[in-house]
Design goal:
single chain, alpha+beta, two-stranded antiparallel ribbon
Length: 79
């Protein structure tokens, strides 16, 4: 497994920052961010696709969109 660090929130001054990682073998993305615990937000999100006990919702700042898109393009796997 080769997981590559792709970038962190550019406005975060420390090490505990929202971040994007890419599994170079599968193209899967991993996100580090604030865990969403607000029951109203979780209920709203669950309306569209449910939320399994093994799943978590995390929040990343909008300013990280460029990093996420770049990681998606780098990890694009065509089957």
């Amino acid at each position: 497994m080769t997981i590559q660090f792709y970038g962190k929130d550019p406005d975060c001054p420390g090490n505990n920052c929202p971040a994007v990682f890419l599994d170079e073998q599968t193209g899967d993305l991993y996100f580090q961010g604030a865990t969403v615990t607000d029951p109203a937000i979780l209920a709203r999100l669950a309306e569209d696709c449910g939320l399994a006990d093994s799943e978590s919702v995390i929040k990343l700042p909008a300013r990280m969109v460029e990093l996420i898109v770049e990681a998606c393009r780098a990890g694009a796997v065509v089957h």
